[in-house]
Write a structure and sequence with these properties.
Bound molecules: zinc ion
Largest sheet: 8 strands, mixed
Strand order of the largest sheet: 1-2-4-3-5-16-6-15
Number of domains: 2
CATH topology of the largest domain: Aminopeptidase
Helix content: 25-40%
Strand content: 25-35%
CATH superfamily of the largest domain: Zn peptidases
């Protein structure tokens, strides 16, 4: 057994206590004051340079090795979700309407564990521990980048790693990742086609937005199938189309709401531009106008292939090859660690935390009120993060 694994076993009870304490008192969004306090208390006494965020309740802690060397960033997100817990666990949420239903309480505890493990280890370099609020839609990672987390150690990290637990899909203790795209980007677009209303009997005196909006819908489906590589596809869904009030009135405008899912930055950019060009071009060709509003979601989460390989090899060495699986396809969920991976090569790794006695194929998944995440994975998750940092630092800048 590696020395880190043995040390992690000694930490296990502390990490379980911390995780359950966080679980009882979930907080939402960018402001997690109680969570921040608990993290600072758990890190107290370690030789860390610790700073807290100004626009959010983040904690950034830098651990310097015994000599200079490469910087590695490890991240754990800390926020909960607005739902009422129905697990019946003894340490279930005590805050009405809030629950750690995505396992971020485990991520926080594992990152504390990694800090404690690395503080007792010799290495030449630095490790940045990024305790992040606001993953569930508030782009907390983006805020922490704006506040300088990537420069916290004085120079840019050479690599960044994060773990995410799942309450289902994977057997407990199994690690999964992928080279390249791991999760999609999902953007929302509102298109408003503006013409001129009129009497249904005299369309030549109006500018009818309904056939023009319909032409945009069909053009988007042609665009999705003809403008993208079959192996780098996009999914464009027009989920709402609203226009008009009566059968004999030509309405002045039509509104379309659509989502674009993509798996590479290139396809995402092409889809973003293409939707705008098609909508405005088709409307213009018919003498109408279209306005296009993009609400950009999180970017595509793209693993660096060699960092994903390092994660796979490290899991194999620590726990054996049976504990690692390559994901065949990306997932259609999104994750704001993607902002970090846009700037720093790295890997995002899933860790199965389905409790014993539940079938991962049917267990309630993350974000469900009865989703349960098994504490037993805490030491292994902390060990993997610490070991990845050590190996990447040893590999050099
Ligand atoms: Zn999550």
């Amino acid at each position: 057994m590696s020395s880190l694994r043995a040390a992690a076993d000694d930490l296990h009870d502390d990490l379980v206590r911390l995780r359950r304490d966080l679980h009882r008192e979930p907080e939402l969004g960018l402001e997690l004051p109680r969570t921040q306090e608990k993290v600072l208390a758990a890190l107290d006494g370690l030789p860390l340079e610790t700073t807290t965020g100004t626009s959010l309740s983040s904690v950034t802690a830098v651990l310097r090795g015994s000599a200079p060397g490469p910087v590695v960033l490890l991240r754990g997100d800390m926020d909960a979700l607005p739902l009422t817990e129905r697990t019946g666990l003894p340490y279930a949420s005590e805050v009405a309407g809030l629950m750690h239903a995505c396992g971020h309480d485990l991520h926080t505890a594992m990152l504390v564990g990694a800090a404690r493990l690395l503080a007792g280890t010799e290495f030449a370099g630095s490790v940045v521990f990024m305790f992040q609020p606001g993953e569930e839609g508030q782009a907390g990672a983006r805020h922490m980048i704006d506040e300088g987390v990537l420069d916290a150690a004085g120079e840019r990290p050479v690599a960044a790693y994060a773990l995410h637990v799942t309450s289902a899909l994977l057997p407990g203790g199994v690690f999964v990742t992928r080279r390249g795209p791991l999760m999609s980007a999902a953007d929302v677009v509102q298109v408003t086609v503006t013409g001129a209303g009129g009497h249904g009997s005299q369309p030549h005196l109006a500018k009818d937005p309904i056939p023009v909006g319909s032409a945009i819908v069909t053009a988007l489906q042609t665009f999705a199938t003809r403008a993208f590589d079959a192996f780098d596809p996009v999914v464009i869904t027009v989920g709402s189309f609203n226009a008009g009030t009566a059968a004999n009135i030509i309405p002045p405008e039509a509104r379309l709401g659509l989502t674009i899912r993509s798996f590479s930055p290139e396809a995402r950019a092409r889809a973003t531009d293409g939707v705008r060009e098609l909508a405005t071009g088709i409307a213009g060709a018919h003498g109408l106008t279209a306005s296009v509003d993009h609400e950009m979601g999180y970017p595509v989460t793209v693993n660096d292939p060699s960092e994903a390989e390092l994660a796979a090899a490290t899991v194999g060495d620590l726990y054996g090859p049976d504990r690692f699986v390559w994901a065949p396809d990306p997932m259609t969920t999104a994750e704001d660690f993607s902002y970090i991976l846009n700037d720093v090569p790295g890997a995002f790794v899933f860790l199965g935390a389905c409790p014993p006695g539940r079938d991962p194929r049917t267990a309630p998944f993350n974000h469900a009120p009865d989703a349960v995440f098994d504490d037993a994975v805490l030491a292994d998750g902390a060990t993997l993060l610490a070991e990845l940092a050590l190996r990447r630092i040893a590999a050099g800048g």
